[in-house]
Amino acid sequence: NAGVTQTPKFQVLKTGQSMTLQCAQDMNHEYMSWYRQDPGMGLRLIHYSVGAGITDQGEVPNGYNVSRSTTEDFPLRLLSAAPSQTSVYFCASRGGRGNTIYFGEGSWLTVV
Amino acid sequence: QKEVEQDPGPLSVPEGAIVSLNCTYSNSAFQYFMWYRQYSRKGPELLMYTYSSGNKEDGRFTAQVDKSSKYISLFIRDSQPSDSATYLCASQDTGGFKTIFGAGTRLFVKA
């Protein structure tokens, strides 16, 4: 019962560095998304994908890139990390009864 | 103004109390309404969902949606210390491309 798996769980980056947060799901869901969670702001949608080869922007897409080459994988790339990108990142997939969103365990990212 | 507004709390109640958690939303296109529970350092998990207006009950939990006032509520009866968590409301339009979350209310249930 893997569900949504994201790595790494913790990461410290220097300003200007780039990195990729990995996300994989084994539920064969077409819809996947990335959220960031900040105190007092709740979960904010960064990017989403409705299927392989199709991605679109959410509420806060600037500074992030995504791609969807397979149904299973949906990596999030930080192009040039900034301190404002310090946050907890959640990957999610959606499907099944009630269009339930299933979240990964989260990735804690600090940019110094 | 955010499309879904939620008081972040924190809310502290004694064990056994009835808890009322509330959200408001602004987008009339929203048709699906959900409540997620998030324990510390974990991802959110779906607690309940409702479609359009009305009530839905599951054990000690009742979700209520009033589309005329754009108000979403979650009631927890006989609250337990294990209910201590952050509760996030969420709304989704019929197309389902975007699910918008509230800021989350942090709940503490004291034994």
What percent of the residues of chain A sit in helical stretches (DSSP H or I)? under 10%
Terminal CA distance of chain B: 37 Å
Largest interface: A-B, 27 and 27 residues
Rg of chain A: 13 Å
- The total of beta strands of chain B comes to 11
Shape of chain A: globular
| Helix and strand run of chain B | EEEEEEEEEEE
Return residue spans of chain B where pLDDT drops below 50 for at least 5 consecutive residues. none
Helix content of chain B: under 10%
Total of DSSP H or I helical runs spanning 4+ residues of chain A: 0
Give the overall pLDDT of chain A as a whole number. 94
* Biggest sheet record of chain A: 7 strands, mixed
Total DSSP E strands of chain A: 11
Distance linking N and C termini of chain A: 35 Å
**Can you tell me the overall shape of chain B?**
globular
Overall mean pLDDT of chain B: 92
> Element order, helices and strands of chain A?
EEEEEEEEEEE
Largest sheet of chain B: 6 strands, mixed
Total DSSP helices of chain B = 0
